[in-house]
Design a protein that fits this description.
Elements lengths: L17 E14 L2 E8 L2 E7 L6 H8 L6 E10 L14 E12 L11 H6 L2 H6 L1 H4 L3 H23 L3 E2 L17 E3 L7 E3 L5 H9 L4 E9 L11 E10 L3 H20 L9 E3 H8 L12 E3 L10 H8 L3 E7 L7 H13 L7 E5 L2 E3 L8 H11 L6 E7 L1 H21 L12 E5 L4 E4 L4 E4 L26 E6 L2 E8 L4 H11 L4 H16 L5 E7 H9 L29 H7 L11
Parallel strand pairs: 3-5, 6-9, 11-17
Antiparallel strand pairs: 1-2, 1-4, 2-3, 4-5, 7-8, 9-10, 10-22, 12-13, 13-16, 14-15, 14-16, 17-20, 18-19, 20-21, 21-22
Helix pairs in contact: 5-7, 5-15, 8-12, 13-14
The structure holds aspartic acid.
Length: about 600
């Protein structure tokens, strides 16, 4: 028997037809000797009826004993469901198939967990679900994510082809280069003692492809980073990786806006407004305390440095004297904050080195706070005016170096927003997408521990042309031609216009980032060399494909949009990797294992 339809296809139109369906036993009910089986495949499900009045009794008997998730092929006749037994929740809910014959293709053993009820299935321990990922993937909610992922991948290829891009694959066995994250290493058997590294991104290859004249490159690229994993990270992930020649920043903005417009249309059928706002790094930090701000709600941070410059309250004026700033935000309606929540926010401030968290609670018409008594009338008036303070509000302050003050309040803003949402005092619309570009990043950031500058994006990012003369004399002031695309508090991607002059690249490596000339030669010599033989000006971007799909699916975790994800410890519970290898394999590689004690 060969199937004639998939399990989400039949409707009244086919009533009376003989059909064959194949799939998994989703659920099985015995109603007074009549067996109802929902047979399910990737597309959906259809009700089969095994009624001793209409079907061979032996077959009804077999059907009644089937375990969930057994695979069957059934032939039968489509008929309209009797009145009042229709199921309006599923597309095939008006019909059923009266079984005539059945093959049991594979009898399933008792399952480690049930998947017929979405709510109970979603509550199953994630480790168990990952161990039996093939069962978990059958859940319609996860299968829908896989289908959407495939659809968006296809839309990406179609769009890029229309725009004149070439899809080029770049190597997975690469070379260790200090680009930022820790790399996975692969020992070479043929060259004992030497290693490949898995690429963190195809960055260098895509730039070299520009030197080759590819002009417009893209790839759905696999990337690898050996980092401690946070909830939204995987050690291997996919990027929509893009590079173009002879362009400026605006060309990238336009391309990505058109691309995301297409993707949102294809995936969700909705129209997103373009162009997206372009906001400087300074402004996003000042207003939202994050370089990936969620702008779907207010609670914006306000600056009070001028107002408190000569304040009696020395904690504020002292911070300003020391070159810092005073900032505050009004968590509207959050005067009901609990002691524990206040402590959690104070801990956030302390984790940035602050001594505490100054606050004002507005209750019964009074500003309740240990610090208000130090404020002058003008200072209070400034707070009132700029923060629109009302009964029930909670004002939170940070007095610190600019970046710290912004980041402290940025974290507190998100925390307060989450609590206010659960109290029903703030609504953050789930189906609204607030895209924006963050631009004008500083090219460099300073690592206090290592006492040296590092690239805020990566070392191939071009400085703004007119700032190049200040690279050595005033690195802090140099702006980078780097941009991030952000939506609803998620960094969807980032990129930059690149350096294409070998001498500027060498200055960045050796004089600014202080790589010795041997290191810069051995790691990046081929790139500096390539730049000498005709390198066009170029730039690009990479978007996190897994994150993009998670956003479109409304999934909380990227694990729900990756077919075979790893746990937070980097293991695949289904295949049990990573795992030991045979001594013979290590001998071939001439690798010996000594597990060193972990450094504290
Ligand atoms: N390669 C960069 C990254 O992975 C993106 C880019 O600059 O194009 O973040």
């Amino acid at each position: 028997m060969k199937r004639t339809h998939h399990c989400n296809e039949l409707c009244l139109e086919q009533a009376g037809e003989d059909v064959v369906l194949s799939g998994w036993v989703h659920s099985c009910r015995d109603l007074g000797g009549v067996i109802f089986i929902d047979v399910r495949d990737r597309e959906g499900r259809t009700q089969l009826v095994f009624d001793p009045q209409e079907t061979d009794v032996a077959l009804v008997e077999v059907a009644s004993k089937l375990h969930s998730e057994s695979v069957i092929t059934v032939s039968g006749k489509v008929r309209q469901r009797p009145d009042e037994t229709e199921n309006s929740k599923i597309p095939t809910g008006q019909i059923e198939v009266v079984a005539a014959s059945m093959e049991v293709n594979n009898e399933a053993a008792v399952l480690p967990f049930q998947i017929d009820d979405p709510e109970t299935a979603a509550k199953v321990n994630e480790e168990l679900r990952l161990q039996y990922r093939y069962i978990d993937l059958r859940r319609p909610e996860i299968m829908r994510n896989m289908q959407l992922r495939s659809k968006v991948a296809t839309a990406t290829r179609v769009f890029m082809e229309e725009q004149g891009f070439l899809e080029v694959e770049t190597p997975t066995l690469f070379k260790s280069t200090p680009e930022g994250a820790r790399e996975f290493l692969v020992p070479s058997r043929i060259s004992p003692g030497e290693f490949y590294a898995l690429p963190q991104s195809p960055q260098q290859f895509k730039q070299i492809l520009m030197c080759s004249g590819v002009d417009k490159y893209f790839q759905l690229a696999r990337c690898y980073r050996d980092e401690d994993l946070r909830s939204d990270r995987q050690p291997e992930f996919t990027q929509v990786d893009i590079e173009m020649s002879f362009i400026e920043r605006d060309d990238i903005y336009e391309l990505i806006e058109a691309y995301l417009k297409r993707v949102w249309k294809v995936a969700l059928g909705c129209n997103i407004e373009t162009p997206f706002p372009r906001i400087s790094y300074k402004e996003v930090m000042d207003r939202w305390g994050s370089d990936k701000p969620d702008t779907r709600f207010g609670l914006e941070i306000v600056d009070f440095t001028e107002n408190f410059a000569s304040s009696e309250f020395k904690v504020f004026s002292g911070a300003i004297d020391g070159g810092g700033v005073v900032k505050a935000l009004n968590a509207k309606g959050y005067a009901c904050v609990t002691q524990g929540q206040m402590e959690a926010m104070t801990d956030t401030a302390k984790s940035f080195g602050a001594k505490g968290l100054a606050f004002i609670k507005v209750e019964n018409g009074e500003w309740k706070s240990p610090i208000v008594k130090f404020f002058s009338e003008e200072e209070k008036a400034a707070l009132q005016e700029k923060l629109n303070i009302e009964e029930g509000d909670l004002i939170l302050f940070a007095a610190d170096e600019w970046l710290n003050a912004c980041e402290i309040l940025g974290k507190i803003r998100l925390y307060a927003a989450e609590k206010l949402q659960s109290l029903g005092k703030l609504v953050v619309p789930k189906d609204q997408f607030n895209f924006l570009w963050v631009v004008d990043f500083p090219l460099l950031a300073f690592d206090k521990e290592m006492n040296r500058w590092y690239s805020s994006h990566h070392p191939f990012t071009s400085p703004v042309e007119e700032d190049i003369p200040n690279l050595i004399s005033d690195p802090k002031s140099v702006r980078g031609q780097h941009y991030d695309i952000v939506v609803n508090g998620v960094e969807l991607g980032g990129g930059s216009i690149r350096i294409h002059q070998p001498e500027v690249q060498k200055t960045i490596f050796e004089e600014v980032l202080q790589l010795s000339s041997e290191v810069s030669q051995s790691r990046f010599g081929y790139m500096l060399e390539a730049f000498k033989y005709g390198c066009p000006p170029h730039g690009g971007i990479a978007l996190g494909f897994d994150r993009l799909i998670a956003l479109l699916c409304g999934a909380d975790s990227i694990r729900d949009v990756v077919a075979f994800p790893k746990t937070a410890k980097g293991s695949c519970l289904m295949t049990n990797s990573p795992a030991g290898v045979e001594a013979r394999q290590l001998r071939d590689l001439r690798v010996e294992i000594k597990i060193a004690k972990k450094e504290e």
